[in-house]
Amino acid sequence: MNIAELYKIVFSTCVEFAVYQKDVVSNVEQMLPMLNELGSLYFTENYYRLDEEDYHLVQMLLTDILKDITQGLEQQDRVLLEDTLEYGLLKFLEIFLEDDEILALKEACVIEP
């Protein structure tokens, strides 16, 4: 699972929705295989070797994020999806990235066409 690549896709989706009013629903649907891989990673093994309490908290947080994404897709709720991506999934992914890497990923999204 490439956390940085998923971060770029999610960040770009948020920007496209906020700036260009692009359809976040279709972008999230395209992300589903990566989200499934992310879920598999965190629900089948303690990939980052967190202590048990932190690992459980990470699992609960990811469960809530994935539930909101599922609800947003089922209801075609663009606002719920965008909020979940921006304030849920991006923040979750940032746990596993360094600050300078986050800045570089955001800059790369702005530079790319």
List keywords for this structure.
0% strand; mainly alpha; globular; 113 residues
Strand content: under 5%
The helix-and-strand class reads mainly alpha
Total of DSSP H or I helical runs spanning 4+ residues: 5
What is the molecular shape?
globular
Helix-strand sequence: HHHHH
Our Rg estimate from Cα atoms comes to: 14 Å
Helix content: over 70%
Low-confidence stretches: none
Topology of this structure?
Blueprint lengths: L2 H18 L3 H21 L7 H24 L2 H17 L4 H13 L2
What can you see in these coordinates?
The protein is mostly helical and 113 residues long. Helix content is 82%, strand content 0%. It is built from five helices and no strands. The chain is globular.
Give a summary of the structure in a few sentences.
The chain is an all-alpha fold and 113 residues long.
